[in-house]
């Protein structure tokens, strides 16, 4: 008979990392969400070798108190929720307290931070999940997280990484999904030292144009629906501007990019009469609802959500999109967003 043993924390983190940090882009997502949760108005991303060699995210957000630096890398330690009732109405992108702990367990991570209104910055280094002592450092107000050599200590996982170009493409897609939902935040993306994207603080229409292209925005119809605590806003391309692939489908729930079958289905239904079935509608849509109406804690990376009133959501999304499409088909002038 084999005896039962408690796993060491380090191994627990590495196992969790398997779920949370599938690839460099997933580490980048955790880091960007932390910067946004910290209220950053400006976020810079540096990647090297598709993020495999380096992911550095620097923000001008709230910062982290020196004493909290080790906690930030501790599993299940978070400043974002305190109780089960907080979990039911979570308004931040993170709350599970395992993002940084997971990333740190499979990389060499340096966390440097200077809280707002503090004169000093401090830094903590974690290598292979082992924390080194907190030391003074130089940093403006805000936080930098630097992740080097992802999976250097877990070669079996490292083997699953694809080419630099593919990993870079995933990082870039993650960056764009997040940037799209936060037009008032300034973003910068560099890869191998070269600036790839520079996004000033701008309006939503401008941000959508910067990411999905002016031609998308020019061919787009405005969705603006509201009912019973729900809102659906954003742009859908007119049926003449469809794509053969799904990569221009952006759907957000309370600011979070999600892949939601229910919403995809509702939007497809709305397009059914106007779009050839092999074409995919293009859209950037933002659904908001009271946090109690949606469970975001169903997936480690929160890419999926569960709605309490799924039928009502389906109908709301369907009608919101269908209404603007019906207007164009009926020949009235489509509302353009510029
Ligand atoms: P979660 O985001 O779920 O709380 P994380 O492991 O991602 O868990 O982060 C742990 C904690 O570290 C956060 O709750 C937050 O207090 C702090 N933190 C992480 N990144 C930043 C950042 N860029 N700015 C300020 N605080 C941060
Ligand atoms: Mg987080």
UniProtKB/TrEMBL annotation:
Positions of the DNA mismatch repair protein S5 domain: 208-326
Lineage top rank: taxon: Bacteria
Keyword tags: DNA damage, DNA repair, Endonuclease, Hydrolase, Nuclease
UniProt GO MF annotations: endonuclease activity
UniProt record similarity statement: Belongs to the DNA mismatch repair MutL/HexB family.
Purpose: This protein is involved in the repair of mismatches in DNA. It is required for dam-dependent methyl-directed DNA mismatch repair. May act as a 'molecular matchmaker', a protein that promotes the formation of a stable complex between two or more DNA-binding proteins in an ATP-dependent manner without itself being part of a final effector complex.
Protein name per the record: DNA mismatch repair protein MutL
Species name: Crenobacter oryzisoli
Gene coding for it: mutL
């Amino acid at each position: 008979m084999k005896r039962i043993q408690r796993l060491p924390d380090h191994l627990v983190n590495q196992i969790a990392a398997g779920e949370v940090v599938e690839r460099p882009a997933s580490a980048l997502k955790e880091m960007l969400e932390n910067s946004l949760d910290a209220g950053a108005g400006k976020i810079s991303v540096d990647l090297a070798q598709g993020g495999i060699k380096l992911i550095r995210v620097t923000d001008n957000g709230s910062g982290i108190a020196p004493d909290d630096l080790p906690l930030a890398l501790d599993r299940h330690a978070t400043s974002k929720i305190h109780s089960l009732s907080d979990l039911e109405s979570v308004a931040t992108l993170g709350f599970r307290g395992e993002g940084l702990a997971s990333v740190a367990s499979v990389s060499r991570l340096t966390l440097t931070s200077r809280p707002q209104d503090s004169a000093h910055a401090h830094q903590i280094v974690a290598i292979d999940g082992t924390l080194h002592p907190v030391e003074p450092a130089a940093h403006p107000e805000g936080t930098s997280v630097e992740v080097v050599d992802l999976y250097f200590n877990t070669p079996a996982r490292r083997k699953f990484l694809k080419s630099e170009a593919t990993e870079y493409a995933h990082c870039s897609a993650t960056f764009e999904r997040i940037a799209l939902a936060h037009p008032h935040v300034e973003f910068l993306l560099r890869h191998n030292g070269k600036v790839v994207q520079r996004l000033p603080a701008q309006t939503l229409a401008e941000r959508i144009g910067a990411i999905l292209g002016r031609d998308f925005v020019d061919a787009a119809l405005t969705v603006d629906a509201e009912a019973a605590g729900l809102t659906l806003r954003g742009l859908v391309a007119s049926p003449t501007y469809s794509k053969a692939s799904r990569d221009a489908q952006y759907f957000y729930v309370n600011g979070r990019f999600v892949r939601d079958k229910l919403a995809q289905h509702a939007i497809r239904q709305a397009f059914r009469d106007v779009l050839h079935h092999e074409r995919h509608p293009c859209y950037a849509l933002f659904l908001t609802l009271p946090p109690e109406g949606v469970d975001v804690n169903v997936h480690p990376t929160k890419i999926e959500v569960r709605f309490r009133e799924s039928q009502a959501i389906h109908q709301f999304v369907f009608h919101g999109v269908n209404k603007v499409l019906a207007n164009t088909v009926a020949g009235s002038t489509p509302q353009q967003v510029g």
